Structures are given as structure tokens and as C-alpha cells.
Amino acid sequence: MAKEYSGSPKHHHRLEAKRNPLTWILGVSFLCILFYVLGAWQRSSNPNTTQFSAYNRGGCDSHVTTSDNGNAVVGHPSSTNLDFASHHQVVLNSSKTVSQFPSCDMSFSEYTPCQDKVRGRKFDRNMLKYRERHCPAKEELLRCLIPAPPQYKTPFKWPQSRDYAWYSNIPHRELSIEKAIQNWIQLEGNRFRFPGGGTMFPRGADAYIDDIGRLIPLTDGTIRTAIDTGCGVASFGAYLLNRNILTMSFAPRDTHEAQVQFALERGVPAMIGIMGSQRLPYSARAFDLAHCSRCLIPWQKYDGLYLAEVDRILRPGGYWVLSGPPIHWKKFWRGWERTREDLKQEQDAIEDVAKSLCWKKVIEKNDLSVWQKPINHVECFRSKKVLKAPHMCESDDPDTAWYRNLEACVTPLPEVSSSDDVAGGAIEKWPERAYAVPPRIRSGSTPGITAERFVEDNKLWKERVAHYKRIISPLPTGRYRNIMDMNAYLGGFAAAMLNYPVWVMNVVPINSNHDTLGVIYERGLIGTYQDWCEAFSTYPRTYDLIHASGLFTLYQNRCDITYILLEMDRILRPEGTVIFRDTVELLVKIQSITDGMRWKSQIMDHESGPFNPEKILVAVKTYWTGEATQKQL
């Protein structure tokens, strides 16, 4: 029997295979990986084809377009339909009908749940407690959608919105009549005009701010965050924006109907709030400047309680500006319809309180008076050994501000090693301070957050906002002005938005693992504390875009997320946008609820690709209005 020829091709290949098994393994592995990557790439969403824009009131297109007025249209191309049921084990009951939320009665069009006038009457009028936050009990919560007024229009874009607002959006003539001489607001046809006037600045806010600028530095970046107590329609804050100063304006919901609503309609930061019996919902050492222009707050009463609260929220070296009665009463007393004795007594009392807080009076000129808080309490502690009242507060945490009663005491500043040091640490001037490591992080006083983590968070949010720009086409066009970040953390989202014509209300939930509101203010941004199991202190339809990253993971076991979503609907403007970031399971649950709220939404991949378990849900509130009542016809 003949032997097989040893040099035959068959025998040769067998020998080669035995010699090089590794080559075959590597080759097969390479082909597997190649086809897997190609398949994943084909299934992933192309940023250019998943662009998401706000809902057009004409309907929902099946393609990605932008309407003539700059509003966006929800895109649902077949290539971007994401089916999470089979890949992420989310149980979807396709036979279950979506629960539709009805419209509330038109009488709720301007409903502010925690500042409801009817509920407020049940509370003590002493120290204006009846105008503080009093939220509805669980059985009083509404399960309906707050309607916009008939003929509601998209607000003017910034900066035109600073000077104009549609009458149909805020149908209140009262201020245009009551404050006509003071130039707060004027009704011209179907729109309001804001001349920039105020009770104490009839020449206009610009000229008034220029007067202040001659007394303290307003344009060199030293002053960035300000608070305006009793703000009216927030013309002071509106014109400070020209100086790169971001102002938190607040006023109560009182007889001056809708003043905060007017402020937000203008695109100016504002909240419903009052100096009553509780601390303001801001961290200690938050503001570089505090301002009161005839704000009717009795600064000299209750042992200086209200000035002590201003002292708590004012940064070391910060300024307090007071204009109007009783300042310079010797010259102006006749026009104020008060006696000289009464005005003198009030100013003397204010001077005494300011001195007891260790403030220094900088200047008094015309109807303006300016005080400055010390940069540390070295000298103040020495003086307190002589001046016993008010005493130093003994509270462990001066940042605690949510439903915390006011105290007539001086909030102690962090200790320093030298009388020349700034308590808590010096901050950079604006705009450098936006990205400089905040003193609270540098000093290690914010547990769990390091300088490295801060830098990484900034980089992360720059990437995320760049991704938002791709999927939300109107972002850089001025379509959005008022933005809220419901779970702000270090303020990275807001900082990444600084190049756009927007401002961001950074909200730090009181349930967060880290109290970071002080860090946010040290960056030159603004924000507030909030419990999202309750309503926010604002009017309906006051925000263009709401950002909620990880919020529902935080609250899913604390309260019914349906009410959080209904609150978001209340404060979101028609055709406004919401960006959710969370787990797929939660986003699917959120989407099942918002489908019944007249929202259009789409779940998208994480910016890093389809393999990241965190997803993005972009939703748009559709345009609809309530029906006109007989009174409005």
C-alpha cells in the first residue's frame, strides 16, 4: 500500500494548523469583534438623526424639523426607535391605556400651591407668617394640569423680554395703574412695557445702579451674586445683568399681584419669598451684595432679626445697600408723609443693629446708604465681650435654611489665622471664579468632594451640554432663557451653560447626600434649597427648560413621583423642554406618566453610546390653553 506523499497540500495544511493554532484563534476572534462592533454601530443613534426639538403647536412630525418660529418638533425616525423591553427587562404592558390627566379649572391658572392665598388666611399674621410657605396636605394635592390663559403666546426672546411681555400671558393691569407714576410697568396695546423704573429710581434702574457704582465696585468682577429683597418687577436685577451681576430677586405673593411672575416673564431670576419668621432658603455666605429699595421690611424690629438674616447670607466683605425711608430723612421727610422724629428713630435703630453685627458704614449719599460686612470676626469676637447683644449663634450649621426659624444672633464666620484673612477663604473675581476651585472644596469643608472631583465634574458637564446642543436644536438660539436644574450638585450644568443667553436656577434638594449650595454660590452662580415632595416657590409657566439628572433615583422612594412631574408641568411653559437623566426603568415609568400630561417624549442613548445603563429622556410640553371664562370674554 502506497504511502501518502508527505509533501501533499492536505498534509501540509494539517501540519501548519497544528503548528499555528494561535493564528486561527486570533483570526476568528478578530472577525467576531469586527462584526459585533459593526452591528452595534449600525444600531446606535446618529446624533444628526436623533435631533430633538420642542413640540410645534401644529402637531408632531415624523421627521426632525424646526418650525418657523424657532420651536422644535419631536423627531421619531424609525432608526431611533429604542426598544428597551427586550434588552433591559423592563416590563411594558402594551395593552394598558395611558392615564390622561384632565385640565384644572381656569381659576387655578396662576395657582401657587405653597403660597395659596386662601390657605394662607388660616395662619398667624404676626411677622407675616401667613405669607410664608404653607403647602397643601396630601389629600389636597391636585391631579390635574394647570391651564395657560387663553391666547397665551411664547414670551419675547431675551434681551427683548427684559422690556416687553404679552398681556395675554399675565392679564393683570393693577401694577400698571398703581405704579404708573413710578414707571414700574406700562400697558401698551396687547403687551406690557417695562421702562426700568422703580419706587426709588424714577430716572430708571440703569441710572440708579450707576449711582451705586460710584460708591462700591460693581464692574470689576468683585461683586457677582446679589439678592434683592422686595424686588417689585425686578428691574434692579434686570439691569445688573449688564454688569455681569446675577441677582436673586424675591417678593411675596401679596397685593402687588404677580410681581414675581412679571420678573420671570421678563427672563430675570426671581422667586416668591418673604422676610417673615423663617430663614431664607439660601446657604450662608452666599451673596456679595444685598439690596433693599423701599422694600418695607422693618429692619429695626424684633431685635434686628431681619438684618441678622441678611448677615448670615452675606459673604465676608459683602455690601448691604439701603435706599428710601429712613435714609437721609432730614431732606426727604416731607415727601414720605412721616414725622421727623419717627424717621430719626428708625434710622438710629438700624444703625445700632448694623453696628451690633460688626458692620462698617461705608457711606451715606443722597437717599443711598451702604454698609459692609467684615471679612472675618476677629475684631467682632473682641467687641462681643463688651457688647453682649446680639450674641453669637450657637447653631452647628449656618447653612441649614429649610423651614428653619430665624434667630436674633450673629452667625459666626469660619475661623482665620490672621485678621487679614477672609473667613472661609478668598474667591476669584468673575469670570474666573466660575471654574476656580471653590474655597469650601479647597478647605475640605464639603465632605466627600475634592478638587479633582470638582474638575472632573466640570469636564463631564461640558461634554454633556455639547451633546444637548446636538439633540436640542434651539439651545443656542435664544429659544430658552429661564432654566432650572432640579438636582444641581456642584453647578456643573449651569457653568457649562454660561456661553448661552440663559440663566440657571440651581436647586439643591434637601435630601441630597451633599449640601453643595454654598459651593454653587462661591462659583458665582445662584440657586436655592428645595424639597421636591413639595411645590416650588414660583408661578406657573415660568421656566423654558428643566433639567433633572438623577432626581428620580433620589425621590422614587420618598414620595409619589407623579406629583413631582405634575409640579414640573405647572412651572414649565407651553412648548418648554425637559431633560431627564436616569436609569431606563425609571425613564420608562416617567414616560408612561408624562404621556398622559400632553407631553411628547423620546428616550435616547447616553452621550457615551448605547452600552451605558443611564439613558436620556427628552420631553416637550405641548401647546394648549384653558378656555376663556365668561369674565374674560
The helicity comes to: 25-40%
The CATH class of the domain at 430-621, by name, is: Alpha Beta
**Count the helices. How many?**
19
Count the strands?
A: 17
* CATH T-level topology of the domain at 430-621: Rossmann fold
Amino- and carboxy-terminal Cα gap? 112 Å
- Strand order within the widest beta sheet: 6-5-4-7-8-10-9
Structural shape? globular
Largest sheet: 7 strands, mixed
Spans of at least 5 consecutive residues whose pLDDT stays below 50 are 1-18, 43-95
Instruction: Tell me the CATH architecture of the domain at 430-621.
Output: 3-Layer(aba) Sandwich
- Cα-based radius of gyration, to the nearest Å: 29 Å
State the secondary-structure class.
Answer: alpha/beta
| Fourth-tier CATH superfamily name of the domain at 430-621 | Vaccinia Virus protein VP39
Q: Estimate what percentage of residues fall within beta strands.
A: 15-25%
Mean pLDDT: 86
Enzyme class: transferase
Protein name: Methyltransferase
Pfam families: Methyltransf_29
Transmembrane segments: 21-41
